[in-house]
Write a structure and sequence with these properties.
heterodimer; A: alpha+beta; Aldehyde Ferredoxin Oxidoreductase,  A, domain 1; Aldehyde Ferredoxin Oxidoreductase Protein, subunit A, domain 2; Aldehyde Ferredoxin Oxidoreductase Protein, subunit A, domain 3; 3 domains; 6-stranded mixed β-sheet; 19 strands; about 40% helix; B: alpha+beta; Alpha-Beta Plaits; two-stranded antiparallel ribbon; globular; binds iron/sulfur cluster
């Protein structure tokens, strides 16, 4: 945040090796909340329809939150916004760590990367200069080596680095962007977009202080937030066991995606849980992202096998995707898989998804049991085979042998292999579903279907529907009038729940806070976020205005996809989840049927002011939010007006 | 009401809340490099621990200071820098074997903990108890402040 509360955007053009500064004044911040909101505005404006996400014209926006760099608890996060090489649609992917604060202390709020470099390049952004460096010495190095070597070469021990691993260099569409060693903006293949620009790394460091408008008031609301976090049981739980602490409970609800979503329960879930990690000595220490008092981040090491393997994590998603999804019931093997994904720069969800799809395809005879490993040997595709999983991870990152088929994601792999294999390609919009069993959780089903980035949990995260905690039940009561709607397998009132969660998420990302504080634990409320933003900027924003700004952001992002031709037809869930029932012992008919999803979509579009038939924001909706430029981009052709 | 800051390095998660609180309280802005408490982080292994001044009874920094700018507060026992008198010679940084004094090269003065008049902000915000304030029962010579690291002493032009 600039000292006047506004935003300073650094635009970098890699083709021209030039930079320019753009500023947004306070009213623009209030309209779009800074961070992700402004990033989506810039993306919509600067990256028109039909641009190749791997081309030089693609735009990649790195947006720490508006409060990143301050003491607002958990406000250290950065959202990366771009067009996904995996889906061809809008993508926002968020990372923790310390990189965002580093960019802020270098004096910039948002970094926009345009163009493509002709040679491997890194950027060094400090408060005295922006440098384009030669990255050929780092090309081919993994994330850990790159981060370590660059800090050494630059002689800056406290530099923070966001970079890609070999997977991003190879334009693997399940490659993410990593920062502070083990923090990932994993989803949607934005690592490939960075690799396509020949941009290996962005190093940030600075000594520009951040001032808030009303320090006393800002301190008070930060203190309130800290106290809420300290008093919230779910926050303590995540601090104690990490995100993987929820493995056991999810399994007990029979909502744990096992073996490529064929089952919802496995016998030995404890062995891949956060409790096992903690109690059996795999956990080396806990770590925090910048300004985070929750510290759900782990640093873990193997014990029995794969000795010497250490890395940040693993998270719930990684253990669920490898451990349950690929039937890898061995913590040591999971830790090695996690380390490989981290250092090769891969999205562990999507990587494990394509691997389990390959196992199932071999089982069903659509691909051979033995596939070429690209190094003169072969890999046997068999459920639970740790050696195969670990070999495939490396093959994907380097596009070696059969790994090249998997490297573009599961939708592309199914198209290449053919047969019925698309039926067990658990994706929608081209993104592999994250590890939520949406057949057992209907708000999640709707949130996954409408998510502009594809079926995953980090756009709306309607965890309140499970009613896990007093805070969650209270929220459901407030939004629906009755706590009985905190029931995951019913559909009533779910569209309202999803709309609220998406809006809360947009505020969270834009301010740079963590959904672990605002959504899954509900420790920090939208009212507190409004108070934080007001105290920081001196521009009064209330809770209602926060929601309105969040709706503006959601409409902008939806409009980006609409401009690309996406709409209701794309708001779907993976075929398996819509057509195959999940076996369970509770007698629940667990499927995301067309009818069920369709009815929720109608209601949701009505809430959003989007056309029921097309799923596109109505012109009147866009105009009422003051998004004239977006309305004219979508409705400039004659006869398209839908007021 | 004399006391000392005690650290438990194994508990530290590197959240930097302490540095942020310290810099807001003393500098009125978020500038963690100007904090009086210094968290040493090694992100590759996610290692972090805080370094705080132990407010020695017989402070080597005060002996080293040629102008007597390091003083002991009678109320809290805190050894603090009188910034009006500090000439920025950095002798105290060298003298502190614990590495607990930093330097503000903009203002040209030494930076060190003053115990916030007995209510240290870092203790207030630390979520893990990695920094605590222990009141003295009887003041001794034992180092209570956990491991120091003079090689990693931070000056802001580093
Ligand atoms: S506030 Fe506590 S846990 Fe956080 S960095 Fe400081 S000493 Fe470590």
């Amino acid at each position: 945040m600039s000292s006047n509360g506004g935003v300073t955007v650094l635009h970098v053009d890699l083709s021209e090796r030039s930079t320019y500064i753009e500023r947004f004044a306070l009213p623009d911040v209030a309209r779009l909340l800074g961070g992700r909101g402004l990033a989506s505005h810039i993306l919509f404006r600067d990256m028109g329809k039909g641009v190749d996400p791997l081309g030089a014209e693609a735009v990649l926006v790195f947006a720490p939150g508006h409060l990143t760099g301050t003491c607002a608890p958990t406000a250290g996060r950065t959202t990366v916004v771009g067009k996904s090489p995996a889906t061809g649609l809008f993508m926002k992917s968020s990372m923790g760590g310390h990189w965002g604060a580093g960019l802020k202390f270098a004096g910039y709020d948002i970094l926009v990367v345009h163009g493509a470099a002709s040679q491997p390049t890194y950027l060094l952004v400090t408060d005295t200069a922006v440098q384009f460096g030669d990255a050929s010495q780092y090309w081919g190095l993994d994330v850990r080596e790159t981060s370590r070597e660059m800090a050494k070469q630059l002689a800056m021990p406290d530099v923070d680095i966001a970079c890609i691993g070999p997977s991003g260099e190879n334009k693997v569409k399940v490659a993410g962007i990593m920062c502070t060693y083990y923090h990932a903006a994993a989803r949607g293949g934005l690592g490939a977009a960075m690799g396509a620009k020949n941009l290996k790394a962005i190093a940030v460091r600075g000594r520009t202080p951040i001032k808030v408008a009303e320090p006393g008031r800002f301190w008070d609301v930060s203190e309130e937030a800290r106290k809420r976090i300290a008093a919230t049981g779910r926050c303590k739980f995540y601090g104690q066991y990490g995100t993987a602490g929820v493995v056991v409970g999810t399994n007990e609800m029979e909502a744990f995606p096992v073996q490529n979503f064929r089952r919802g329960y496995m016998e030995n879930a404890y062995q891949i849980s956060g409790q096992c990690l903690t109690d059996r000595g795999y956990l080396v220490r806990r770590e925090s992202c910048f300004a985070c008092p929750i510290s759900c981040k782990r640093y873990s090491a193997t014990r029995a096998r794969y000795s010497g393997s250490e890395a940040g994590g693993p998270e719930y998603e990684t253990l669920a995707a490898f451990g349950a999804g690929c039937l890898l019931e061995d913590m040591d093997a999971n830790l090695r898989a996690n380390e490989l994904c981290n250092i090769l720069g891969l999205d562990s969800i999507s990587t494990a998804s394509v691997i389990q799809w390959a196992f199932e395809s071999a089982e069903r005879g659509v691909v051979p049991e033995h596939v070429d490993d690209g190094s003169g040997g072969h890999v046997r595709l068999a459920w639970g085979d740790a050696d195969a999983v670990l070999a495939l991870i490396e093959m994907i990152a380097h596009r070696k042998g059969f790994g090249d088929v998997l490297a573009d994601g599961v939708r592309s792999a199914a198209r290449r292999v053919g047969g019925d294999s698309w039926k067990w390609a658990v994706e929608a919009k081209g993104l592999e579903q994250s590890r939520v069993e949406t057949r057992m959780a209907k708000a999640y089903a709707l949130a996954f279907a409408t998510n502009p980035r594809g079926p995953d949990h980090l756009y709306g995260q309607p965890m309140a529907e499970f009613g896990f905690s007093p805070e969650a039940r209270e929220l459901v009561r407030k939004l629906t009038g009755d706590v009985k709607f905190a029931n995951p397998v019913i559909t009533e009132h779910k569209p309202e729940l999803v709309a609220w969660h998406e809006e809360c998420f947009a505020m969270t990302d834009s301010l740079g806070l963590c959904s672990r504080a605002t959504l899954s634990t509900y420790a920090i409320t939208p009212g507190m976020m409004a108070e934080m933003l007001s105290a920081a900027t001196g521009f009064e924003v209330d809770e209602q205005e926060m929601h309105e700004a969040a709706r503006r952001i959601i409409n902008l992002e939806r409009a980006f996809n609409a401009r690309e031709g996406a709409g209701r037809k794309d708001d779907r869930l993976p075929w398996r989840l819509m057509h195959e029932e999940l076996p369970n012992s509770r007698g629940i008919k667990a499927v995301n049927s067309e009818e069920e999803l369709g009815a929720m979509l109608d209601e949701y579009y009505d809430i959003r002011g989007w056309d029921r038939e097309t799923g596109v924001p109505k012109a009147s909706t866009l105009l009422s939010l003051g998004l004239e430029e977006v309305a004219s981009a979508l409705y400039s052709e004659p006869g398209k007006q839908r007021m | 009401m004399e006391g000392a800051l005690v650290t438990d390095p194994a508990k530290c998660t590197g959240c930097l809340q302490c540095e942020l609180a310290c810099s807001l309280k003393h500098e009125g802005q978020f500038a963690p490099w100007l904090a009086r408490v210094v968290v040493h982080r090694t992100p590759e292994t996610c290692l972090a621990f805080p370094n705080v001044c132990q407010h020695c009874e017989d402070p080597p920094c005060a002996h080293a200071c040629p102008v007597g700018a390091l003083k002991t507060s009678p109320g809290t026992g805190a050894v603090y820098v009188d910034v009006v008198e500090c000439i920025g010679c950095r002798e105290c940084l060298e003298a502190c074997s614990h590495g607990s004094i930093s330097f503000d090269s903009d203002k040209g003065v030494a930076l060190k903990c003053d115990l916030c008049n007995g209510e240290p902000a870092c203790v207030d915000v630390c979520p893990t108890g990695a920094i605590r304030l222990e009141r003295y029962v009887a003041r001794g010579s034992d180092c209570l402040a956990g491991p120091g690291n003079p090689d990693r002493r931070r000056t802001d032009d580093e």
